[in-house]
Amino acid sequence: MCVPSALPGQDVDVGMRDLGMITRTLAES
């Protein structure tokens, strides 16, 4: 998933973190 570079770093970090949690949840289930 590509995140626009125009977004603040914090928003990108939160987005990547959320994606990681979702991926981890799907992997566990």
N-to-C order of helices and strands: H
Strand count, sense and barrel status of the largest sheet are: none
Over all CA atoms, what is the radius of gyration? Answer: 11 Å
| Unreliable residue runs | none
End-to-end Cα distance, whole Å, is 21 Å
Quaternary state of the chains: single chain
Number of helices: 1
Q: Structural class from helices and strands?
A: mainly alpha
How many strand segments? 0
| Overall outline | rod-shaped
Whole-number average pLDDT? 74
Estimated helix fraction = 55-70%
What this model shows, in words?
The protein is mainly alpha-helical. Helix content is 69%, strand content 0%. The protein has 1 helix and no strands. The longest helix is centred in the middle third of the chain and has 20 residues, at 9-28. 0% of the residues are buried. The model has no long low-confidence stretch (mean pLDDT 74).
Keywords for this entry:
29 residues
